[in-house]
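Ticket #234: bound-state structure for 6-phosphogluconic acid.
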Amino acid sequence: MTVTLEVVPDPAAVCAELLVEAAGAGGDIVLTGGSTPRAAYERAARAPGDWSGATLWFGDDRCVPPDHEDSNYAMARKALLDPLRERVGDAGSPAVMRIPGELGPHQGADAYEHELRSAGPPRFDLLLLGLGPDAHTASLFPDQESLLERSRLAVGVEHAGLTPFVPRVTLTLSGLALGRHIVFLVTGESKAAAVAAAFGPEAEPDPHVPASLLPSLAESITVLLDSPAAGALA
Ligand code: 6PG
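RESOLUTION: The complex was predicted; output attached.
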């Protein structure tokens, strides 16, 4: 499959449009954590659109309570879910399938795996991901065993490779490959080397560069970049 690299002035705006479009089509959408998507979520919450038929999932979460400042769910709630609910009420809001990270990495992963399997598992119409400066994506960190898992859709990660150093629950590469359209949202110079290593012209699948393992498994990948993040591409 091909990876489309799109350098745009405002990746969050493009991402917000994709979110609103997938929600309007009643899609299964996977949200990403970290700090980069916050602006996209805030814009999507303000844009006109129908979220009533959509289901929101998460690509990973930290093993903390759902109202903790490190929780990816808490970030999405503050930036997207609460403002949306305020505007359109419960009936207009999407279904939300959060990862119960507070159960710990293994029990949390088992519970999320069960939810995913009970739902089909779904093909995700839009699956958002971030990229770390070490090229980790979701909570799939360089050279960890989780990269080898193919039969499960979600696994526990005891040691995060990057801050915050709390255990995680993450979709596996098999779980991420359920995405029909995978969109990476990547901004800033600190990600430029990781972008080139994972998606540049010389990129090869390499467990030291977790995101590079996805193109051979996925149907369609778009990488939305600002110019600084695209700075190391030939
Ligand atoms: C997480 C993530 C992770 C994130 C990248 C980029 O829970 O940490 O889902 O994969 O997307 O680390 O994060 P930033 O946007 O904060 O750089």
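RESOLUTION NOTES: The longest strand covers residues 3-7.
TICKET STATUS: resolved
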